[in-house]
Every structure is written in C-alpha cells, then in structure tokens.
Amino acid sequence: MKFAIQVNEGPYQHQASDSAYQFTKAVLEKGHEIFRVFFYHDGVNNASRLTIPPQDDRHIVNRWTDLAKQYNLDLVVCVAAAQRRGMLDDNEAKRAGKDASNMAEGFRISGLGQLIEAGIQADRLVVFGD
Amino acid sequence: MDDMEGEGTIKKFLYLNRKAPYGTVYALESLEVVLIGAAFDQDVSLAFVDDGVYQIRKNHNTKVDSGIGMKDFSKTYRVLEDYDVEKLYVEKESMEERGLTKDDLIVPVEIMDRAQMAALMAEQDVVLSF
Amino acid sequence: MLQTVNKSPFEKNAMQSCLRLSPQGSAVLFYEDGVYAAVKGTRFESQIKEATQQFSVYALLPDLEARGMRAEDVIDGVKTVDYSGFVDLVADNGAVQAWL
Predict the structure, then answer these.
(1) Mean of the pLDDT values across residues C56-66?
(2) Domain range list for chain A
(3) What ipTM does this complex have?
(4) What integer best gives the mean pLDDT of chain B?
(5) Homologous superfamily of the A2-128 domain (CATH)
(6) Mean pLDDT across the stretch A51-68?
(7) Helix (DSSP H) and strand (DSSP E) numbers for chain C
(8) B118–C22: do the CB atoms touch at under 8 Å?
C-alpha cells in the first residue's frame, strides 16, 4: 500500500515530527511504500541542516536524511511555507539574493501541488501536527 | 510536468478547518492549499468545525495603521467560487455555541448537524486537517 | 475511517469533537498527549467506555509508556498498539482524519 505523510510542525517543539518519523519507519519496515513526506507549516524547519541538538538527544533532521537515503524517500518542503520561515535551498537562496542556504541533504523544495498530488496518488494520507 | 501526474483521478478531498484565524497560521496556510489544490480538479469540500467557524466570520479588520497589521485573508473565501470550490459546510453546534448564525458568515455555507457532518466525513478519500 | 487524536482531553476539545462527529464504526486512535484520554480513573473514563460501543478505540503504547503508563492502565475495551499496529490501523480503515 502507498502512504503519504504530512508533517505540520517543526522538530523538538512538538512531537509531530517524531511521531511521523516512527510511523514512516514502521510503514517501510512492513514493506509498504512511502509515496512522499510533505513538510508544511513549521514542519519546514525539519529540513534545516543548521540544527544542533545536544549530543545525548536524537537528531531529528539527520534521522530524516538517513531514512531518505536508506529508502530513497521523497522529502518535500513546501516552498511558500519555507520562504516565510527562512528555509532555503541553494537555488532559492540564489534567486532571492540571500547569502546562505540551509537545506539539509535528502530534502527538496517544491510547491503545494506536491501535497495534493500525494493525496491523489497515495492510498492513504496521514497528517501529523499540533 | 511533475505536478500534473495525478491528472485523471478524481478523489474526494475534505479540508477540515478547526482553528481560529490570526492566533496561528493554520487557517491562512490551509486556504493556500485549497487555492493551489483547485487546479487539480478534485471533488473538494471545506468543513468549518469548532474554532474553524471563526475563519469565515464577517468584518475582520486587520489594518496596519490601527490593527494587528496582518493580512486579512477572510475575503479570499468569497472568491473560492471562482475556483470551483463551492462546497462549504459549517457544523451547526460549533456555530451555535459561538453565538453565531449564518448571517454572521462572510460566505454562503450549508449548515450541517452532527449526523450530516459524520456522513460527509465518511465519504471522503483524503482528509487534510489544519 | 481512522480518527486520530493527539491532544490531552484536559487541554483541548479534539477528543470531544472527534467523538461527537466521527462516523459510527470508525476506529479511533489516541496517541501523543491524546493517550491521557485512554487511561482509567480520569473524569473521561465513562465517556470513553461509551465510545467503545460505537468505535474501535486504540491507544499507542509507546506514547503511554513514555508518559509513565502501561498497557494495563488503559480503560477496558481500549486496545493498545505499537507503531506497526498504527500502520495496520491506517491500512485497514480507509481515510485518516487527524483531530489536531
């Protein structure tokens, strides 16, 4: 079965990203497919490669990156929500004339259409938020 | 075009709005999904439940000079019709317990009781919750 | 349908709205702070017991355990699941509605 995941909150502040991660991992371990993980609202902050959690804590961003690498996941960050919150990849930074970008490996920026498409293509959409 | 991969499939999408505007960004960013999603020609319904009813209350005033200085997006609900988003539902108890009537709302909506709302939810393929 | 509730019933109305509006026969999963609704001895216990007549009610065990509770602390009629069980609930119950 094909699952799509929506993550509406950033790392650490809410459990949403943790729950979404544990759920996504369980989906994959059971042999199902993840069509896409879409990060919206403050969820875009899960893609910041500048995140530095304490050493004895989980690294939420790296955990997503690693899972994406292992299972070839499509992690999509909403461009409109990302721009508002200062989350940029190299292209967006260049286009907007900013001097830095902060997108972690394994994530890509795209439009809200990717969320709708995920809703259409996947058998289930599961939303994690606050 | 990647965004149009879902063309041809028509699913029932429900946007479940349960949060008040301005205090958090969910109402505004939910509306942005609705507007983008309209291009996908899906069977879309919007439900306003709990504090979500406040999103479509009349007479929002957010002027920069005398007010909170945020964008008043309530007028956008009026143009949804132009996007062929025409099924707007308000749950009766949520509206009434907030002391509101249909006349207090900025757009024409259908009022639904518990049972009707439950039936609407039961027929959906995808529920986007904000 | 699968209904998910991740808020404490003491803080938010998510559980109340879920129980009021969910189609009969839905599965209801309490997770994150939502699990506080599923344990014995709170003022919501009778309401949850009643809900088990209309819905299949579940609580996510890892969230219960994280908060100092165990499987035997949940109200009779409420089943506990792990993340794998959460996935099965989604697969088996059609559309998912999150009461955020």
Answers:
(1) 98
(2) 2-128
(3) 0.97
(4) 93
(5) DsrEFH-like (3.40.1260.10)
(6) 98
(7) 4, 5
(8) yes
